[in-house]
Amino acid sequence: MSSGQEIHKYLKLNKIGQGSLAEVFMAKDRIIKKLFAMKLSIQSNIEESNKLVVIREAKILKTLNHQNIIKLLDYSDSAEQSIVLSRHPSSVLSIIEFCPCSLSQLIVHPEFQFEVTEIKTIVWQLILGLNYIHEKKIFHTDLRPSNILMNSKGVVKLSDFGLATYLNSTPMKQDWTFLSPAMWYAPPEELLGKGNYKVPEDTWRLGNTFFSVCIIPEMWRKKPIMEGWNRIDQLVRIFELCGSMHLASWPEVVNYEFFDRNVLPLNCRRNILPHLGPIINDEEILEMIDEMLVISPHFRRPLRKTLDWLHFISRVDYQPWVLRPMLERYSNCTGVDFPRLDLLDDDH
């Protein structure tokens, strides 16, 4: 990967997405005519902390090389090159591989449904990617359907590492005093103000994402199953579904910044299996979600165990090609011509 010397070779095309810190555009390599995604932080009054988030994402991605992690091709915080591409000198930009759809787009489409085999294949690839970054002591901290991408060959990619952090480091604080999509997938310990980050937090997010993939296509409400309005409301919804926390199995929770036994419900029963049982006709999926969405991080199913369990129990070929029929169905629903997009992918 170059360090911005070749940014000028990319032609910025149409806008394809936007987050809280940056906009995403289609970009074409002027020489080889291949398409990529260009991420630009273009706010005229961009805060230094926001700029550092974009820079940190690029630095983390630069250290990663895995089929199920979005690939960074180029990056620049040069004022001169920023002016050329974004018309503002404070912009930070990165060039990443292009993926034509996200998991959230598949979930919310009213005419689209997942097959059980496809769900397991998606989760298998996600766990491979998560296990890889965890071995490098990196944690995503913002895993949710909109940050899970897919290329035209069915390869699932973890993306958006702007909030990623390292083992035992303090993650960036997020404002969860109001409605926030990121909050809907956050684990209880993060909502309660735990100071550092470890593996179980990403496991909860994966379970919550998996939970949405399973449930939403079969329910009339096409939205997250735990959709709180603020930090406390989100915790209440978690406890109502997953059961209240027990201090005997999680004693350190009393030291967390936002723990308050007078506000949080302490007598909720666990309702995951009763809630899911009538909807999901697959014992493996039910067991996996039940062991991922556990209130105490000490008793959450480890990702490595889930990977081994999927491998030995399921008779499923988890190769990306399994998802091609799914992409064809999505193509029929949306008009996106995935076969035409083969040239967008690299050898992955």
UniProtKB/TrEMBL annotation:
Species of provenance: Cotesia glomerata (Lepidopteran parasitic wasp)
Coiled-coil features, chain-numbered ranges: none
Broad class of where this protein is predominantly found: nucleus
All copies of domain Protein kinase, residue ranges: 10-322
One term of GO molecular function: ATP binding
Keywords: ATP-binding, Kinase, Nucleotide-binding, Serine/threonine-protein kinase, Transferase
Subcellular localization: Nucleus
GO CC terms in record: nucleus
Listed name of the protein: Protein kinase domain-containing protein
Domain of life: Eukaryota
Presence of keyword Lyase: no
Higher taxonomy: Eukaryota, Metazoa, Ecdysozoa, Arthropoda, Hexapoda
Alphabetical list of InterPro entries matching this protein: CDK (IPR050108), Kinase-like_dom_sf (IPR011009), Prot_kinase_dom (IPR000719), Tyr_kinase_AS (IPR008266)
